[in-house]
Structures are given as structure tokens and as C-alpha cells.
Write a structure and sequence with these properties.
Blueprint: E1 6-13, E2 20-22, E3 34-36, E4 48-54, E5 71-76, E6 90-95, E7 101-109, E8 113-115, E9 119-131, E10 134-143, H1 145-150, E11 151-159, E12 165-169, E13 174-182, E14 194-202, E15 211-219, E16 224-227, E17 230-233, E18 236-242, E19 248-254, E20 260-266, E21 269-271, E22 275-283, E23 290-297, E24 306-311, E25 316-318, E26 324-331, E27 336-345, E28 354-362, E29 376-385, E30 388-397, E31 401-403, E32 407-419, E33 422-423, E34 425-433, E35 437-444, E36 450-455, E37 460-461, E38 464-473, E39 476-477, E40 479-480, E41 485-493, E42 498-508, E43 520-528, E44 531-544, E45 547-550, E46 552-555, E47 559-570, E48 577-581, E49 591-593, E50 598-599, E51 610-613, E52 617-620, E53 631-639, E54 656-666
Parallel strand pairs: 7-16, 8-19, 21-29, 31-43, 46-54
Antiparallel strand pairs: 1-4, 2-3, 5-6, 7-9, 9-14, 10-13, 10-15, 11-14, 12-13, 15-19, 17-18, 20-22, 22-27, 23-26, 23-28, 24-27, 25-26, 28-29, 30-32, 32-41, 33-40, 34-38, 34-42, 35-37, 35-41, 36-38, 38-39, 42-43, 44-45, 44-47, 47-52, 48-51, 48-53, 49-52, 50-51, 53-54
């Protein structure tokens, strides 16, 4: 009666007795193994060896479980001949120490190095080399202290097995997988085990150089089992090869932070003299934390164009090279650091300049290290515009009304109110009048870099004068810096009455003016006529018939007065009247005038003098002289009148002429 769980392999009669048998069913008492020995003589004996293979899955002895671990085999013998003693016809064997023995081949594989912040995967390969089934096989992956601290269990998957379940225990610090019963691999050769793949995430903050350790442990309910370190050679089953059955595994941690840096200019187009904001952004997409992140904004490369003002991050400071250094510290994976760097574009930056501001990002975590060649560089461009608020003022001296012939001095003041320097400012001046005037001079407070063009050239003009002045330095536009002043002085003069209107405009060819309301100025002046009239008088008299003598006359003889009138300017004298008050003892015999007409008047009368209009020379001749006095005084006066305006004269003294005549004899 074959016990359950066996397979009949062979039957051997050691004595050579022939036999036949019919196979029974192991474990079925109604279907025993029957061996037919035929007829045997008295005194015969033989030994039958029955070889059985115990099924690998037969449960062997298990502590505390009495129903397992034994196997009973009963055998009976009978024949057709009567057997009078049945007591020895039954033999039994009870194997009370049935054991399960499994040789378990375990191998663990995984990365020897891993980057902090990345996923890692360990493979645990398990194979039951037999001979017994491994009952209730469990795989335990114990994590070392560092592994427990820096690893996060993500999950698992299994190959070449079904029904395997794994759980992670934070309390026990490991992953525990239940395989169930695992039959042995029939024969040696290609492994036929199963693999468990455990997935973990390495914490991004894991320090570089940390060694993660874990140990694989296999448990079964078998009474005896052990790991094997050698297996038969697949090419020659009679030989064995040593296998590297790894139960402990070490992974050393490295780090990598693939930083991303951006820099933006706000605004991208900025006016010289105004603020610009640079927005610095550093993002760490990982996989590892970036240690000791250091950002350098290379302001110093544009020292002539930019000046640092302030940062939103107090850890950003200006160094001796005028670079802005920002200490970020540790930037965790997935985190972003940002800072606003405020600067000011200097007013002197020429319009159209493109400022390329660079930023370098470094970290102790590769790949962007402290070596400048390994740093992460980014840059942004700022386009510089120009906006100068030019203000022009103009006044003339003397104020309001100017005497003809005097100098009228215009002062043009150009101020730059900013915010940018004004490059090549242009002053355009227009003078318009209803008369002729003369441009005397144009001078500048910046004589070395002021260039003016005048139409028509300096000199007399026909009521219109235009000139343009600009600041030029070596053929290039020269700046009028913020808060600076440029003064032009223009001098004109006019000899005739007129109104002069003077307008001025200022602008810059290289930028915009934010306020054009102060780019114009106008002044007006009246030129008033001024004439300087002078009169001179001379006398010639006869002291004897045919004998003429200056300033002398003989009573009873004739004398001639010559009166000369001149206009010394500068204006034309209109309606000139010469009045000559003659002594009462004279008789006017005739008057000759080079210009105008004369009224002889009444000699000796203060209210009816000799009067001539618009004359240059007056000759009064053949005036008989009374003998009543030895000395004759003769006065003449000249005046100029305009129809509506009294002429203003430079001097009044020369307007009177007097001559004294000595009477030397009486006839």
C-alpha cells in the first residue's frame, strides 16, 4: 500500500526472483501495488527493493503541526496455499521524520551608484533548486538606516510568477513579499525562478557619498533550507560553477541638479536715465537638490551704462567688481528662486545701445559648478532709448523798446531737464522784422563745440534772419547732460524804427522730448528812431569895400551868415526845421538854401525867426549892419520832427549855433 505523495520508480528483486506487478494508486487503500512472485519453494527468500520518489510538495515536518512530517507504508503477502500463521504476513514502516529540504538560489541586482532625486530599481531573483517545494516562501528586503531615511517605496512588479504580493513596512524598515509555495526547478540548467523588482525614489536631498544598504532574506516553512553558492554547469552537468549569490547590496549616492536660469528686462526698452528691473529666475528641475547655489549678475561688464540700485533679495549685494552676487543656498528639486535687481541706465548712454546683461549660476551640485567654464549662463538684452526734456528760454536787453543804433542783445538759454542726456541738441532761431537790421554776433557758452549756420551771413539783413546752432564734438553729436545749461548770445542792431520778432525752437535729433510745450520761446522788441542833428554857423563881413573878414563887419556894409546842418544818425531825421533868430539891426537881403524853403521872418523877433525846412546849408547874405552896437550876437537852432513821434536826439548842445561879430567901423 503506497503512501500518498509518492511515485513508483522501480522494483528490484535482489535475489533474482522473477516477478510481475500491477501498479497501484499511492494513497488509495483499495488500489495497492501487487507484485506477483509466482510459485516459490519452501525455504525460499528474496529481497524486493521498491524505489519511490517522494513528491516535492509532500509536507514535511513542521514545528507545532503534528499532522505533517510522517509517512506510513504497509505490505502484506498471501498465496493460494493455506498459510496457518497470518501473524507475520503484515509488515509496516512509519517514517516519522519526513523533511522538506530546499536549496534556494537568491541574487540581488541594482545600481551601484544613483543620483539623488531619481528612481532606482532593485531586482531580487529567487530560484528553488529543490529537492522539495519551498512552502510559504517569503522574501524580505531589509533597508539599512540610510535607506530608510532617504528612500521612498514606489511599488513593485513581478516577473515569471503570479500571486506574489509585497508590502512596505515603515515600522520594520523593509519590503515584505509573499510568494506562497514554490515547487523546485526540475533539473539544473537555465534558471526558472522568479524576479521581484522593487522601485524606490531617492530623496533629492540625500547627501553626496551616502551609501544605501539593504539585505535580502528568504524564509520558508520548510524544516531545512539553505542558500546555495554553486550550481551545475549548464554546459556540463557533472561540473559545478560558483555563483555570486548576493544578499547584501550597496548603492552610493551622487547628485545632479540641472538648473534652468532666465533673466528678463522690464521693460525691454528703457529710457537712458531711468530705472530698469531685471527679473532673475533660477529653477531646479532636479533630480537632486542644488547645494550652495550662487548667482552672479555681471553688472560690472556695463559699468559705463548701468549702475546698481537695489535688490528684492537682501542676499544680493554688490561686490568690488560691480557685479551683483546673490547667495541662494540650497535650492530643492522642483523649487524656484527669483529676485528683482533694480538698476538705472545712465543718462549718458547713447540711444540705440543694446545692453546685454549676463548672469552666471553656479552650485556645488553638478553639472554647474564653481568653475566658470561649467557655470550656467543666461542673458537678456535691453534696448536703450533717449528722452530729454529740453527747455528753451529767451529774453532781450534792453527790455521792450530799443533806441535805434543801440545793441539789442538776445540771450537764449537751453536747459536739459532729463532724464537722458540730449545728444546734438539743435537751436533754431528766426528773426523777422518790417525793416532792415544787422546781425552783429553770435556767441556760445560752449564755444569749442558749438557750430552755427546763419542765413544770410552775419551782416545787414533784409528783415529776415535764420540761424541754427548745434553741439558737435569731433564731427559727432556732443551731449547736453542732464541739468546742464547751454547759453547762446545773439547781438543785433537797427538804425530805423521797426518791430523785431524773435522765435526760437530747440530739439534733439537723437531722441524724443517728453514735453514739447517748453521747446519754443518768443520775444518782441520795438526799435525807436534816434537822430543826432547838429548845426554850425559862420559869418563873413565886409570891413571895407571888397575886403571880407571872418566874424567882422563894418557898419553899413554887408555880411553873410553860413549855417550848416548835419544828421549824425543813426536814423533819418524827418521834417527838419532850422530857426535863425536875427538881430534887430539887420536887414535880410536874401536867403539861399541847399534843401527846403525859408521864411525870412522878422529880425530881432523871438517869435518870428528866420525858418528853413529840411535844409543842409543856409546862406543869408548882404545884411546891412546897424551902427548902434559894436558887437552882434546871432543864434540859430535846428529841430527834427516826425509826423507822430518826437525824435529823440543823442545830444541837444549841437542843435544851437551862435556867432559873434565885431563891428569894426561905422560908415
Amino acid at each position: 500500500y503506497l503512501p500518498a505523495g509518492v511515485v513508483l520508480l522501480s522494483i528490484t528483486a535482489t535475489g533474482g526472483t522473477p516477478f510481475s506487478y500491477t501498479g497501484g494508486t499511492p494513497g488509495d487503500p483499495t488500489d495497492p501495488l501487487v507484485i506477483n512472485l509466482g510459485t516459490v519453494p519452501a525455504g525460499w527468500s528474496d529481497i524486493l527493493e521498491i524505489e519511490l520518489l517522494v513528491d516535492p510538495s509532500v509536507r514535511g515536518r513542521i514545528s507545532g503541526m503534528a499532522q505533517y512530517g510522517f509517512m506510513r507504508n504497509d505490505a502484506t503477502i498471501e498465496s493460494d496455499t493455506f498459510d496457518d500463521d497470518w501473524s507475520d504476513n503484515l509488515a509496516s514502516w512509519l517514517d516519522e521524520d519526513v523533511l522538506n529540504l530546499s536549496y534556494i538560489f537568491v541574487e540581488k541586482d541594482g545600481p551601484t551608484t544613483a543620483v539623488a532625486g531619481t528612481e532606482i530599481e532593485y531586482e531580487i531573483f529567487v530560484e528553488n533548486r529543490g529537492p522539495s517545494t519551498a512552502f510559504n516562501l517569503r522574501v524580505k528586503d531589509w533597508l539599512g538606516p540610510e535607506s530608510q531615511q532617504y528612500l521612498t517605496f514606489l511599488g513593485y512588479y513581478v516577473e515569471n510568477a503570479s500571486g506574489v504580493s509585497c508590502t512596505y513596512s515603515e515600522h520594520w524598515g523593509g519590503v515584505f513579499c509573499n510568494r506562497g509555495d514554490m515547487v523546485p526547478h526540475n533539473g539544473f540548467g537555465t534558471p526558472e525562478g522568479f524576479s521581484i523588482y522593487l522601485r524606490f525614489l531617492v530623496d533629492p536631498s540625500t547627501p553626496v557619498g551616502t551609501v544605501l544598504t539593504d539585505t535580502v532574506e528568504i524564509l520558508t516553512d520548510n524544516w531545512e533550507w539553505e542558500y546555495i553558492t554553486q550550481i551545475p554547469d549548464p554546459l556540463d552537468p557533472t561540473k559545478f560553477i560558483v555563483v555570486d549569490s548576493v544578499l547584501n547590496w550597496e548603492t552610493e549616492i551622487t547628485a545632479e541638479a540641472n538648473l534652468v536660469a532666465t533673466k528678463a528686462s522690464v521693460p525691454q526698452k528703457v529710457v537712458a536715465g531711468e530705472q530698469v528691473k531685471y527679473v532673475l529666475t533660477v529653477t531646479n528641475p532636479g533630480p537632486s537638490d542644488a547645494e550652495n547655489v550662487f548667482v552672479v549678475d555681471h553688472f560690472g561688464e556695463w559699468l559705463d551704462e548701468l549702475e546698481f540700485e537695489i535688490s528684492s533679495d537682501p542676499n544680493c549685494q554688490l561686490d568690488i567688481n560691480n557685479h551683483v552676487n546673490c547667495w541662494v543656498g540650497t535650492l530643492p528639486a522642483g523649487a524656484t528662486w527669483t529676485a528683482d535687481i533694480w538698476g538705472r541706465v545712465k543718462p549718458s548712454v547713447f540711444p540705440g545701445t543694446v545692453i546685454t546683461n549676463r548672469v552666471a549660476v553656479r552650485s556645488d551640485t553638478p553639472p554647474y559648478t564653481a568653475d566658470p567654464d561649467n557655470a550656467l549662463w543666461t542673458a537678456t538684452e535691453t534696448y536703450v532709448l533717449n528722452a530729454a526734456d529740453l527747455k528753451v528760454q529767451k529774453f532781450g536787453k534792453p527790455d521792450g523798446e530799443v533806441r535805434a543804433g543801440d545793441l539789442l542783445t538776445y540771450t537764449i538759454i537751453v536747459d536739459n531737464l532729463g532724464p537722458s542726456d540730449a545728444w546734438g541738441p539743435v537751436v533754431q532761431d528766426m528773426l523777422r522784422s518790417d525793416g532792415d537790421f544787422t546781425l552783429v554776433s553770435i556767441s556760445s557758452s560752449r564755444p569749442n563745440d558749438t557750430v552755427c549756420s546763419v542765413t544770410p551771413p552775419i551782416g545787414s539783413t533784409d528783415g529776415a534772419l535764420d540761424f541754427t546752432c548745434t553741439l558737435v564734438e569731433n564731427s559727432d553729436p556732443a551731449p547736453l547732460v542732464v541739468s546742464d545749461r547751454w547759453v547762446l548770445t545773439v547781438v543785433v542792431t537797427a538804425n530805423e524804427t521797426q518791430d523785431i520778432n524773435n522765435t526760437v525752437r530747440v530739439w534733439s535729433e537723437y531722441g524724443l522730448d517728453p514735453d514739447t510745450s517748453n521747446n519754443y520761446a518768443l520775444v518782441e522788441h520795438d526799435i525807436t528812431d534816434v537822430s543826432d542833428l547838429v548845426v554850425a554857423k559862420a559869418a563873413m563881413g565886409l570891413v571895407a569895400p571888397g575886403e571880407w573878414e571872418e566874424n567882422a563887419v563894418t557898419a553899413g556894409l554887408s555880411m553873410v551868415y553860413t549855417v550848416t546842418v548835419a544828421n549824425l544818425g543813426p536814423s533819418t531825421a524827418e521834417n527838419v526845421v532850422l530857426k535863425d533868430r536875427l538881430p534887430s539891426w539887420l536887414v535880410v537881403t536874401g536867403v539861399e538854401a541847399s534843401q527846403g524853403a525859408c521864411n525870412t521872418g522878422t529880425p530881432g523877433s523871438a517869435v518870428d525867426p528866420l525858418a528853413c525846412g529840411q535844409e543842409d546849408v543856409l546862406r543869408c547874405g548882404d545884411a546891412p549892419v546897424d551902427h548902434r552896437d559894436n558887437v552882434l550876437d546871432h543864434f540859430a537852432r535846428v529841430d527834427g520832427r516826425r509826423p507822430h513821434l518826437l525824435d529823440r536826439e543823442i545830444g541837444i548842445g549841437p542843435n544851437r549855433g551862435q556867432v559873434r561879430i565885431q563891428v569894426v567901423a561905422v560908415i
